[in-house]
Structure formats: structure tokens, C-alpha cells
Design brief:
The protein is built from two helices and twelve strands; from the N terminus they run ααββββββββββββ. The protein has about 210 residues and is α+β, with helices and mostly antiparallel strands. The protein is elongated and about 95 Å long.
């Protein structure tokens, strides 16, 4: 019997068991550490997501404006409310209108929309329609009117209107198309052009 035990528990066998024990210990530690790290990553992502949602700030009577070199207001945006993302500075707008002014400070154009998106850093603004209301742009005294599903306001008072564009400028133009672009600087719908699936009548009264 002792001889049999001696063969079983010889030096090589004991070394093998030793390495197996060490390997098992390392595996157990790795498995524990991996689970711990996975749980920490999951928790961190959840915390960040929760914090981002918390950090977004809702501002009632939100406003944004751009001024020229003489510190005169070029345009001013007002919204019933704005939800500001602190990281991107994007603002989700509800019930919004944008007023454009000429160099003398007189109101020349007002754009209204049910919703919109603006960026506080770049001042880029996009006005969006709803199922029941289009984006509407009306000049002083009803001199010009633009309807579209979406109007993107760019730098230097440039605009891009897309989707079911309809421009009525009494005594000057009546245009239906899929896309319009031009300038809102100083005059109503200055230098606009329509592209794509367009029907236009320009000049005089219809």
C-alpha cells in the first residue's frame, strides 16, 4: 500500500497539482476581476446617461440673438421653451419665432414654427413644421410670405427652405417648389431662387 501511495504522490504528481492549483487561483482572480470591471463599466455608463439627462436644462421663454459689428441686433429668436444640452450647446425649441431687422433696426421679417433646433455657439438654426403647421415666414406688412416644411437659417442671413415650398410676394412673385434658398438681409426674400419641381409666376399682379 505505501508503495502505491508513493507512486501516486510522487514528485511530478505533486508539481502538477501545484501548477493546477496556481492556474485555478489565477482563473478565479481573473474571473472575479472581469466581473467587477464589467459591473463598473455598466454602472459608469448608467451614471453618465443619468447625469447627461439631468444636466439638460429647460429654459422657459428662451431667447437667442446675433448682433453685427456695431452691436445692433441682426436677428433675435424667441421660444416658449428651450432644452439646452450643456455639452453640444444644441437647444430643442418649442413654439419658436425669429425676427429679422434691417440696418436701421426696423423689423423686416418674422419666421414662426412649432418646433426647432438651434446651437448657441454657431447660431445655426433649423425651424421645423408639425403635422398641422408649416414653417411660416412673413415680411413687414405682409409684403412677402414663405411656407415650407423646414427652413434652415445659415450665416449672413442666408436661408434654405425645403419641402413643399410656397412663396407669395404680392405684385412680384408666386412660386411653388421643393427647395428655395436666398437672403433675408435688408429686403424681403432678397435674391431667392427655387430649384426642383417648380412652378413660378413672377412680375405684376396675377
Amino acid at each position: 500500500m505505501p508503495a502505491i501511495l508513493s507512486k501516486i504522490f510522487n514528485k511530478n504528481t505533486l508539481v502538477l497539482f501545484g501548477w493546477l492549483a496556481i492556474a485555478y487561483t489565477f482563473y478565479t482572480f481573473w474571473h472575479y476581476a472581469n466581473d467587477k470591471a464589467t459591473n463598473m463599466v455598466t454602472q459608469t455608463k448608467a451614471d453618465l446617461s443619468h447625469r447627461q439627462n439631468q444636466d439638460k436644462m429647460t429654459v422657459e421663454d428662451y431667447s437667442l440673438k446675433e448682433v453685427n459689428d456695431a452691436n445692433k441686433v441682426k436677428w433675435q429668436l424667441h421660444a416658449k421653451s428651450g432644452v439646452v444640452d450643456p455639452v453640444t450647446k444644441d437647444v430643442s425649441l418649442e413654439t419658436v419665432h425669429v425676427d429679422y431687422y434691417d440696418e436701421a433696426g426696423a423689423l423686416k421679417m418674422r419666421m414662426t414654427a412649432p418646433t426647432g433646433i438651434a446651437n448657441e455657439n454657431t447660431k445655426m438654426t433649423k425651424l421645423l413644421s408639425s403635422k398641422t403647421q408649416k414653417v411660416e415666414c412673413e415680411g413687414e406688412g405682409g409684403k412677402a410670405k414663405l411656407l415650407a416644411y423646414q427652413v434652415e437659417l445659415k450665416n449672413k442671413n442666408q436661408f434654405l427652405a425645403t419641402g413643399g415650398v410656397n412663396i407669395v410676394w404680392p405684385g412680384v412673385a408666386k412660386v411653388n417648389g421643393s427647395q428655395a434658398e436666398g437672403s433675408l438681409k435688408n429686403t424681403d426674400l432678397k435674391n431667392f431662387k427655387i430649384v426642383g419641381n417648380t412652378h413660378a409666376w413672377i412680375g405684376g399682379s396675377q
